[in-house]
Write a structure and sequence with these properties.
This protein is of the alpha/beta class. The protein is built from eight helices and ten strands. The strands form two sheets. Strands 6-7-8-4-9-10 form a six-stranded mixed β-sheet, with helices on both faces. Helix 4 runs parallel beside helix 5. It binds adenosine-5'-diphosphate (ADP) and magnesium ion.
Amino acid sequence: MNIFSHGGSCGHSCCLRIQGLSVKIGSDTILDHIDLHVHCGELIALIGPNGAGKSTLLKAILGQQEFDGVISFAVPGQRSRSPKIGYVPQSPGFDPGDPVTVADLFACCMSKRPAFLGISKAMRNQILTCLERVQGEDLIDKRVGTLSGGELQRVLLALALEPIPNILILDEPLSGVDVDGIETLMDMLDDIRKNYDLSILMTTHDFASLPRYADQVALIDRSLVSVGTPVEVLGSDAFRKVFNRKGGIL
Ligand code: ADP
Ligand code: MG
């Protein structure tokens, strides 16, 4: 990823620019010349039908997918540093019978100490501090496989926030989460980006919550179909055409 110094419209926080990004897998063009600018501190929703290339775009940003084009990033005053990216992957499956607790999951990711030695008091306190960011201290001793969809997403979010990233990327964090859980999670993401001044890029099929929470919506279907405010994109002919809807959703 290129690092560029700030200029122009981005006065604070970080800024991600995607220019002419294309991904080919074999002879299949998965993404075709995508241009996207994730502005400072914004929440951008990436939408599109299944197979549109949303997860592939996120993987390219994360450095897990080869691509043509340019992905560049800026933090004011930090020309030589790579961005810290927090990532919440798409619905990881955990078995309800699996004995792994939330504390174990954090300790695996955060501690160099072998798991069989147990979790030190200091590590437990560190985990509680992380869970506090998502109001999830009460989840620390729960088995990961028994968490509700919303609880699991909050735990994964807490993991992605340690250390606090410049950009937070979430792949369909709202799938498998009930209506109340969606509001809780979106309110939380809204607070997090304001409190930590970070940018959020998330994929979702939950269009109804976008006007309230998203600054920009990018509709992709292998190429960039439409980008703008939620009202602009969700009310567009392009949106209706891609999702084969007679009326818009607004
Ligand atoms: P979305 O997240 O929008 O549902 P994806 O980015 O997961 O879409 O996938 C876009 C397309 O790329 C799909 O047709 C998928 O089958 C294909 N694809 C993704 N990864 C690979 C891969 N590693 N090998 C071959 N095809 C892939
Ligand atoms: Mg996907």
